[in-house]
Design goal:
Elements lengths: L11 E7 L1 E2 L11 E2 L6 H15 L7 E9 L7 H14 L1 E12 L3 H4 L2 H6 L4 E7 L3 H6 L6 H13 L4 E8 L6 H12 L5 E6 L7 H4 L7 H17 L2 E5 L2 E4 L9 H7 L3 E6 L3 E5 L6 E6 L3 H6 L3 H4 E6 L5 H9 L6 E2 H8 L7 H9 L3 E4 L2 E4 L1 H5 L1 H6 L4 H4 L19
Parallel strand pairs: 1-4, 1-11, 2-3, 4-5, 5-6, 6-7, 7-8
Antiparallel strand pairs: 8-10, 9-10, 12-13, 13-14, 15-17, 16-17
Helix pairs in contact: 1-2, 7-9
Length: 414
């Protein structure tokens, strides 16, 4: 295959990982750590800013289009600590005017009290981890908030001045019925938010649920639940623009999560914090490099150099480019514009014409003008679609290649 050649570099985002939670949920395989004693937030902010300064030579002159502060539970941090963090980010980077700045928050009363302060810091998008409004489901998921906490959190977020609010909701929960899911859908719609994320519960390895599996709905019922979510949200004016992401379509693309869209379109992102992943393209070398930071908070905080903060670095090989790109881009309902592939990967798509033809023949993808997108069947069976693009050397060894998770995780577990 030919070498990479970028005519221009893809958009660039910043992901910041804060790893602490009040309690580790039994389904969660993200890089999160249960809070034990006082969180060293100011020491951690200092480490984050050193981390960012060390990354900047790789992206000199490039503008950051969005910031996402994820976790863990970032809303556990004080407004003072986040102010110090964001002030440092603005000093070190070229942050676009009116850039989307998202903070993940839990609905607990401790976090709610800080929502207004968070908004005053320039955080303009809040993503609240509701998961369910049903007390039985919250208990099954090991959540520490109540249904009333969840409703109150959304109300306070509105009153704090947040115009862009996302709610994370899960379905196919232990012993959940369609009626219980419908109640969650209706309550979510009543909150007048701009974005909803509905994720199907999956029993991930290395979680408590994997060791002690709960009784979950059958495959048939899970499929029915997915259809119920899609149908009800569409009727309420929410556009399903990605497998599990729905934006209120009254303002078009404005209500989509710009940061996540950049991931799905194979954009670049700097990742700072415990276990954070980054992906950075270089016009000079033609390389696309993935970088991962030390995963454990203690090791990350003890690091005295950029080399010690960095846990791993690897190149995306040219033969793996189509798979890496399509794992993300085909999750978007509208797919991707064919010229975008070469623009964001530095390689021509026609190298993979054979698997594209196979996917077209099997009805897994379709071409609409200059765009490729999944059909309904391809959307539901994305693993089968992606397997066609596995490099030959890995095709026999990795017959079951994992699709990226329904909930994006750049914190170091995937």
């Amino acid at each position: 295959m030919s070498q990479r050649s970028f005519t221009q570099l893809p958009p660039l985002s910043l992901y910041i990982h804060i790893p602490w939670c009040i309690k580790k949920c039994p389904y969660c395989d993200f890089n999160s750590h249960e809070q034990r004693g006082e969180i060293p937030e100011l020491q951690y902010v200092d480490a984050l800013l050193v981390d960012l300064a060390n990354e900047m030579p790789l992206v000199w002159g490039r503008q950051f289009t969005s910031v996402f502060i994820g976790g863990g539970t970032p809303s556990l941090f004080s407004a003072n600590a986040l102010d110090r963090l964001l002030s440092g980010v603005r000093a070190l980077t070229a942050l676009a005017p009116n850039a989307e700045v998202t903070l993940e928050a839990n609905p607990g009363t401790f976090e709610q009290a800080k929502f207004k302060e968070f908004r005053s810091l320039g955080i303009n998008r809040l993503s609240i981890g509701i998961q369910s409004f049903n007390p039985q489901m919250l208990t099954a998921l090991g959540r520490v908030h109540s249904s009333s906490d969840a409703l109150k959190a959304v109300d306070i977020a509105h009153k704090a001045g947040f115009e862009q609010i996302n709610l994370d909701i899960m379905f196919a929960l232990p012993e959940q019925t369609e009626k219980q899911l419908l109640d969650d859908i209706n309550l979510a719609l009543e909150q007048s938010t701009t974005h909803l994320s509905f994720y199907e519960l999956t029993l991930e390895p290395n979680t408590l649920f994997a060791r002690f599996p709960p009784t979950v709905p059958s495959n048939e019922l899970r499929a029915d639940m997915q259809e119920l979510v899609v149908e009800k949200l569409a009727t309420a004016g929410f556009e399903r623009y990605e497998v599990s992401a729905y934006a209120k379509n009254s303002s078009g693309a404005k209500n989509r999560c710009a940061h996540n869209v950049n991931y799905w379109q194979f954009g670049d992102y700097v990742g700072i914090g415990c276990g954070a992943h980054g992906k950075i393209s270089s016009a000079d070398s033609g390389r696309i490099v993935r970088r991962c930071k030390q995963k454990h908070p203690a090791r990350y905080l003890e690091a005295s150099s950029a080399e010690e903060q960095l846990a791993d670095q690897s190149d995306i090989g040219i033969e793996e480019t189509a798979l890496e790109f399509l794992m993300n881009a085909l999750r978007l309902k509208e797919g991707f514009a064919i010229p975008l592939f070469e623009l964001h990967t530095g390689v021509a798509l026609d190298v993979w014409q054979k698997p594209i033809d196979q996917a077209l023949e099997r009805g897994l993808i379709e071409q609409a003008g200059l765009s490729l997108r999944c059909t309904k069947e391809g959307f539901n069976w994305l693993n089968d679609t992606l397997e066609l693009f596995l490099p030959d050397a890995r095709l026999n060894a990795e017959k079951s290649y994992p699709v990226i998770p329904l909930k994006l995780d750049t914190s170091g577990n995937k």
